[in-house]
Amino acid sequence: MAIDAMRAEHAVREFLAALGVETDAAGMEKTPMRVAEMYAYLFDGLGRDAAEAFGEPLEAGSSGLVAVQSIPFFSMCEHHLVPFFGTVDIVYQPKDGRIAGFTHFVESVAIAAHRPQLQERLTHDIAGAVQRGLGATGVLAVCHARQLCMTLREGGTYGTETTTSETTGAFATNPQLARQAWTLLVHKEEC
User: Fold this and answer.
1) Residue 121 belongs to domain spanning
2) How many domains, the chain?
3) Disulfide-capable partner of 75 in 3, 19, 67, 113 (CB 3.0 to 4.6 Å)?
4) Residue 178: is it exposed, middle or buried by C-beta count within 10 angstroms (0-12/13-18/19+)?
């Protein structure tokens, strides 16, 4: 997605001026440009499909569940445009032995997170990306996050963490398989 850097910089300058911030003050002259560049990076997932990160799956011949855990992410809350951040755990069941290298999961999570988001939608997007990208039989995605919009507002709730989950395919329809997937993540907590 093409970014209009000059327009973004001008908009940041106008926004700060509307709040009474003097962008001509010493040390602030380049702030509008830096903010525009930062948001261009934070939103570089717009217009991209997180499933594209998987490319061609590897043939491993494995049908057992695979868990990729504690993938760090940061995103921007679409309500206040302040960060939320945390980790994502993914469990999937390969279809016909098709797997992906672990860095592909990190890239997929980053693509889904780098746009204005809600944690619930982010979790849904990640599960769907793994399902589409690998053709997985089932996917469980779990997202643990701290929301700065909750912390920074009046009466902030410091240290509150929100957890969301999403299941697809066999994990959504087969309770025994879903329990097995959750067990992999519970075991993580005990280590």
Assistant:
1) 56-190
2) 2
3) 113
4) middle
Strands (E), the chain: 58-59, 66-77, 83-93, 98-99, 116-117, 138-147, 162-169
Please give the Cα distance from 163 to 181 (Å, whole number). 16
Residue 134 belongs to a domain: yes
The 10s digit of each residue's pLDDT in 72-116 is 999 999 999 999 999 999 999 999 999 999 999 999 999 999 999
Q: Is 142 exposed, middle or buried (0-12, 13-18, 19+ CB in 10 A)?
A: buried
Q: Measured over all CA atoms, what is the biggest interatomic distance in the chain, rounded to whole angstroms?
A: 62
pLDDT in tens, 52-64: 999 998 998 888 9
Residue 164 contacts by C-beta under 8 Å, 6 or more apart in sequence? Answer: 119, 120, 122, 123, 142, 143, 145
Phi, psi of 175 (to 5 degrees): -60, -35
Q: Cα angle at 149 between 148 and 151, to 5 degrees?
A: 60
Task: State residue 188's pLDDT score.
Answer: 58
Range 27-43 average pLDDT: 94
**Which residues are CB-neighbours of 175 under 8 A, at least 6 positions away?**
none
Residue 171 lies in a domain: yes
Same domain, yes or no: 18 and 61: no
